[in-house]
Design goal:
By secondary structure, the chain is mainly α. It is extended and about 65 Å long. Helices cover 76% and strands 0% of the residues.
């Protein structure tokens, strides 16, 4: 039927196999954009710990077989999604969040293994000092991004409209936001307030 055909055509468009590309980009552009998204959404230190942890787990995969298996599932899911729906990542950069379980577990595991190694060969105060230094470095790297988001007035207008509607309407009232593009872009913010 019509709904199934529509579903298939949308899938083909999202999967980049319909011939009607949402956005045209080269593989090089795609890799550069994804790398930038990684740095924006995750910290460089976390990515270094993830890469180091991946290498460590690869060379010790027999010892950590079950953990490595679960990490592989998270990795395949995230990158499978990225490969099947490249247009989705190109347009909706927040979809890179699918990598978070893999990145968080791998980097956390590697940090834990390194802290055990440090604790074995040095004092606990050195391990604590390294943890504090990493925390400061991560905060320093994220500080600019945090304050940019904090000072952004991107949803301020939608917030004001939401507060006004909350004060001057009842939950059962029907409300139309015009222009339609504003409603589609900010409906979540307006509805929340």
């Amino acid at each position: 039927g019509g709904n199934f055909d529509s579903l298939i055509s949308v899938f083909k468009l999202r999967a980049n196999i319909s011939g009607n590309l949402l956005y045209s980009f080269s593989f090089k552009d795609f890799i550069i954009k994804i790398a930038r998204y990684h740095i924006i959404y995750f910290t460089r230190i976390m990515l270094i710990l993830t890469a180091s942890g991946s290498i460590f787990i690869y060379f010790h995969r027999k010892k950590y077989r079950i953990f490595a298996f679960y990490l592989l599932i998270f990795f395949i899911y995230a990158f499978g999604f990225l490969i099947v729906f490249p247009n989705l990542y190109w347009v909706h950069d927040y979809k890179i969040i699918h990598l978070l379980p893999f990145i968080a577990l791998t980097s956390g595991f590697f940090f834990w293994r390194m802290s055990l190694l440090l604790r074995k060969h040095t004092s606990k105060s050195i391990v604590f000092l390294v943890s504090v230094i990493l925390t400061i470095l991560i905060f320093n790297e994220r500080k600019r991004y945090f304050f940019t988001i904090l000072n952004s007035a991107n949803a301020k207008e939608a917030y004001n409209i939401g507060v006004y509607l909350n004060k001057n309407s009842k939950p059962q009232d029907k409300i139309v936001l015009l222009p339609e593009i504003f409603g589609r872009a900010h409906d979540v913010v307006v509805a929340f307030y």
